[in-house]
Here is the input.
Amino acid sequence: MTRTITDGRLVGVGVGPGDPDLLTTRALATLRAADRVVAPSGEAGTAGRAESIVAQAAPELTLQRLVFDMGPDRAASHLAAAEQLLGPLDGGEDVAFVTLGDPNIYSTFSTLTTQLRRLRPGLSVATVPGIMAFQELASCSGIPLLDGTESLHLVTALDGPAQLERAVEDDAAAVVVYKGGRHLPAIREALVRAGRLEGAVLGEMLGLPGERIVPVGAAGDKPASYLATVIVPPRRRQGPQ
Here is the structure.
């Protein structure tokens, strides 16, 4: 019979985009107080990026890896990862799950909690917010992202630039594009067509080896890495050249 109540608690902890200095004091305190800290990884023998950030900021912590397959069989992989946490959670442990950026925005944490809540509907879940890549990119690029009555569209280009094309129709809006690295040439073409290329900036691997921050117009014709972020300032004011 499936249990509906568990004594443990799951906490999603945002660790920022890459630089360990951007881990918040609340995040560090939560990780140090947890009974168990787990981190997503593509392979059991390889540290994921979130794990690497925590290892630099708090080397005294021991992290357990949860393997997530982001391929066609990802649902089964996420279920298997969730099942690995049932024992500790049922045993009353506080489990902290580290994730890049913020756990509530485009995060593996949300898929993990969905699976766990199916298995344990009474599971207690909390989150610790984290600094996001677009905030770091705005800081490094000197872009005041929003002012006055301007708005912000945060979109994904995982399947191409369609969401971006709709968002840039609003001249008073800044647009942030996530998960669009492999579609970077198409993103640039969409910005050219919309008259929004000027001031648009690309940041990838922020705070990590291989970091690159360049204007989108100078980014070249090749795709960028998965951890790529694009900021498009509102058209009515210019971004950095």
The CA atoms of residues 3 and 120 lie 6 Å apart. The first strand starts at residue 9 and ends at 14.
